[in-house]
Please model this.
Amino acid sequence: MNLGTLNVRRPLAILAAVGLVVAAVLGFALSSSAPQNAEAAGTVTINIKDFAFSKKTVTVKRGTTIKWVNKDTTKHNAYSDKSGGPKGKLLAKNKSYSWKAAKTGTFNYYCTPHPHMKGKIVVK
Model:
């Protein structure tokens, strides 16, 4: 190996290392930029605790099941006035209600005895 070859290889090696670091950082940044409340089809759980829904807005794919679990000693539910939305009955502590997001749209819901408790499900 002569000195000329070494002078060319060192900057190329540094450039390659910097490129790998930049690619790793960009890859992490791009994967972290997805909406944090976007959920894939499956089941999404929303806990009810301290007179509040644990997730105020949830964006899901059509076909996803939303499950509300009451963690309070007071009875709560999740109810939407919109056709096709959740129509949960009052739940005792540690009881749950599930609703399948069968059609796209935005479904605002609330707890019927405590209408200040509100949430929203966006189905795409």
User: Anything to note?
Assistant: The radius of gyration is 24 Å.
